[in-house]
Amino acid sequence: MKLQTVLATVSCLLATADAHYLFGRIILDGKWSSTWEYTRQISPSASISDPQTALVAPNTDPDSLDLVCGRNASVSWAPIKTAVIQAGDTIGFGIGEPVLSGDYSAMYHPGYASAWLSKSPTDDLEEYIGDGDWFKILSVTGRTEQSRNFSDPEWAKYYDQFKARWGTFRLDSYNFTVPATTPPGKYLLRFEHIFPNPTDTQFYVNCAHVEIVNNGESGIPGPTTKIPGVYTRGQPDVYFLTYDLSDEEVENFIPPPPIVWEG
Ligand SMILES: *[C@@H]1O[C@H](CO)[C@@H](O)[C@H](O)[C@H]1NC(C)=O
Ligand SMILES: *[C@@H]1O[C@H](CO)[C@@H](O)[C@H](O)[C@H]1NC(C)=O
Ligand SMILES: *[C@@H]1O[C@H](CO)[C@@H](O)[C@H](O)[C@H]1NC(C)=O
Ligand SMILES: [Cu+2]
């Protein structure tokens, strides 16, 4: 068991140079959008020379403004559309270009995902830098009905007994419901996939512009938090080695606060 853990860790670190991804597309009315059609463009990492790798590289600084919507995207600097969605309806995020060659066109790393909303104080989403209150509307930790079926011959080759315990492992998208009592308005809709590591946890984050329509009852979303500020370097539910958890611990894993607002 000890040796297995060491081997698995080494292969993970070797793979991380290329094994990155971003969520440049949304799934609206059951259809995949184009990359950056509704999602804020991000900038390449200045420290990586290959342009594709530079774009998909994750943020590893929990205190950076890049934690809001991805690298250099707390400001909206390229025109995008606003997706109109009815409170209670389903929306999703999907992997966008560039998709790195090889086996990486998916949430390649083990870890957990979440989706968040933050209401723009004005009608102009382009102007909103995401410094208001955020609430969580989705949390995926262990396996769900959307998880890959690794008994299926198409996916069996990607099976890994440690990584497959996490619900998003090897998925190229995730769909979820906007709570039915979400107050109407213009929002940043943020998707986050976290690959925990003891020292440099990777944050994969992107944001879409959405207008939520709700002619019915509105609730009071909460609990809320600020981003950055939601995570502290070293906090044990963000900074850990996934291989060190037992199957039961992954199944019962409690993600970092805040809890999901169900509406
Ligand atoms: C999310 O929905 C889209 C559109 O129906 C679908 O292509 C995709 O496979 C779904 N994702 C998952 C993980 O089920
Ligand atoms: C960040 O975005 C600004 C526009 O807001 C752009 O002018 C600048 O070049 C970008 N920075 C990097 C490092 O890509
Ligand atoms: C998973 O795939 C196997 C093999 O194709 C199939 O027999 C099984 O029904 C699938 N399970 C689910 C939950 O779809
Ligand atoms: Cu990676």
Count of discrete domains: 1
Strand order of the largest sheet: 3-9-8-5-6
Uncertain parts: 1-17
Number of strands: 9
Commentary on this structure:
It catalyses: [(1->4)-beta-D-glucosyl]n+m + reduced acceptor + O2 = 4-dehydro-beta-D-glucosyl-[(1->4)-beta-D-glucosyl]n-1 + [(1->4)-beta-D-glucosyl]m + acceptor + H2O. This is lytic cellulose monooxygenase (C4-dehydrogenating). It is found in: Secreted. It comes from Clonostachys chloroleuca. This protein is of the alpha+beta class. It has one domain: Distorted Sandwich (Coagulation Factor XIII, Chain A, domain 1), CATH 2.70.50.70. The chain is 13% helix and 22% strand. It contains five helices and nine strands; from the N terminus they run αββααββββαβββα. The protein has helices spanning 2-15, 51-56, 66-69, 153-156, 247-251; strands at 25-28, 31-32, 83-86, 90-94, 112-119, 135-140, 173-177, 185-195, 202-213. Strands 3-9-8-5-6 form a five-stranded mixed beta sheet. It has a four-stranded antiparallel beta sheet with strand order 2-1-4-7, with no helix packed on it. Strand 1 (25-28) and strand 2 form a beta hairpin. One 2-acetamido-2-deoxy-beta-D-glucopyranose binds at residues 149, 151-152.
Features:
263 residues; Coagulation Factor XIII, Chain A, domain 1; five-stranded mixed sheet; four-stranded antiparallel sheet; binds 2-acetamido-2-deoxy-beta-D-glucopyranose; binds copper (II) ion
